[in-house]
Amino acid sequence: MTLPRFPGRLGLVQRVLPSYRAAFFDxxxxxxxxxxxxxxxxxxxxxxIVTTRLLHTARYAPAxxxxxxxxxFYLCYQRGLLRWLRDWNPDALIVxxxxxxxxxxxxxxxxxxxxxxxxxxxxxxxPLSGPLAGFRYGRRARFLSMFDAIxxxxxxxxxxYAALGFSPEKIFVAPNAxxxxxxxxPATRPSTVDRATVLFVGRLQxxxxxxxLLQACAQLPEPKPRLLIIGxxxxxxxxxxLAAQIYPSAEFLGPKHxxxxxxxxxxxxxxxxxxxxxxxxxxxxxxxxxxxxxxxxGTQDDLVRPENGWQIPPDNLTALTETxxxxxxxxxxxxxxxxxxxxxxxxxxxxxxxxxxxxxxxxAASGAxxxx
Length: 372
Fold this sequence. Notes:
This protein is of the alpha/beta class.
C-alpha cells in the first residue's frame, strides 16, 4: 500500500518526545518530501515519561523546556522555538493543542506572517467546571481559533473541538496508534481451555490498578485464571506483597519489550488494563486478543468496542470483577472478539492510517491557505 505524501517541509513541536512516538514520527517524516524536523524538550524530573532523541528519518531539534508552576497553574515555555523555525523554515507546522504551552502563539504568528498553515493536534477539550469555567472556555476557544485545522486523537475529541466552535470541516480524526499494521497472523487458540490466561502489560504504578486486577481475580469462581503481570515500576513490591496474600499464583515476570512479549501475547486469552494509560492495548490487539480497559480520555473509544472488548468505569472493582467473570465464561465468544481486535488494527487503527490522516490534514490546510 502506497501512503499519500506531503510535498513540503514539515515542522512539528512537542513538549517532549516519548519513546513510544518515535516510530510514528519517523513514518510521518518519510511521508514528507521535504523532510520533517521535530522540536522537543525534556519533561520535569518527577514525570514518569520515557523519552528518546533517537529518530531514524525525522530530524530531532532539542528545545529547552522551562516548566512553570504546578497542577492547574502549570505552564511550559520552550526556549529556542523561533530560532528553530527560522533555521528549519517549514512549509507547514503541527503543534500540540494545549494553551499551557505559552510559546505556541509566537510560532503561529511567525507562520501566519509567511502565509503558511498551522495545525493543532490534541486529545480534545472536555467540558469545564468551577468558578473560572467561563473564562477558561473563552481562552480555549480563542486559542483554537488560531489554527487552520485540528487533528484529534478520537471522535470524542473531535466532537469536543466542534462544541467549542471550531469548524467540523477542518477537524480530522487520527485514532491514537502506537503500532504499525501487523505483518503476522495471530496465534491459533483452542475453542475451549481448562484454565484461561489473563495478561497485563504496563508500568507498575498505582494508577495502573494492578491491585484491583489481583482482587478481581481472587473473587472469580474456580478455575481461577492464570494471571501474568509483565512490567516493572515503583509499585511492584507492593503488588507482589498483595498477590502473596490474596492471589499467590499471580506471576510477576518483570519488564519485557518487543519480541520478548510475543510468546506471552500468544499464550494469553484476554488482555486487561484496569487503570489509566495503556500503550500495550493496541499491541495486544495485533495478537488477536480481546481486551478489557478502564474508560479514560477518549483515546480508547475508537479502539475498544463491544465487538472486541469492554470499557469499564475507572476505579470500580465490582465492574472489573463482573466483566472478568463475563469474559471468561464464554471462550468461543472471546475468540470471536479477538478476531475483531485483529481486524481493527489491520484495517482501521495503525501507524499507517494515522500518518495518512496527518497527510490529509496537511494537504487540506495547505490548499485552503493558498486560496486565501
